Amino acid sequence: MRVKPVFKGALIILVLLLSAECFAQDEESSQPRVHDGYMARFMLGAGYQKFTCEDYLSGKDMVFTGFSGDIVLQLGNTVWSNLILFGEISACFMPDAGVKLGGGSYATDKAWVNTIGIGAGATYYFMPVNIYASASMGIVKSTMEIDNNTSSGKYGLGLSMSFGKEWWASDNWGVGVAIVGRFTTMKRKSNDNEMSGLYGGLSVTATYN
Fold first, then answer.
1. Which of these, 6, 8, 41, 165, is most buried using a 10 Å CB contact count?
2. Which residues pair with 63 in a beta bridge?
């Protein structure tokens, strides 16, 4: 899966800006087992995804469904007690999709969908139970393939929400689980038809804060 230059550039800028701001802080000001200062979170998950390409062939919608993997990296900083703003990069991939055309089965030897994104969001921790709610919005791009015929979308909109519980593994590290939901929408590059995706799954999380 190729990452377009705009994503590469945005990622580099995101990492540099967040690193410069966060690491400039005095580390001694960060209190143990309190959500303050710099935040880095890694999420690795799996779930179910439905991806629809409208009017794919003869007015019929092409629908991809199946198991999907989900990877997210968030970098941010605490702006208020337990409130964190962050930038994120994400990838959601359905490696072996089932396919339907116009509601009926569509025979294929190989079908997959990949979606990458970059965005920004906020997390709020409910303490002392260490449960959090998180939401983000950003730019996404999907690519799909059926029997070596590849189609891609234009840059579109991605929305994400997660609800998680973490347990302190050390003074600054927390590990946990989260319920994750995603929605994406964009235009198909070749003909401007609508493409959209829905994902729901569970992730394991590791957060430094």
1. 41
2. 52, 100
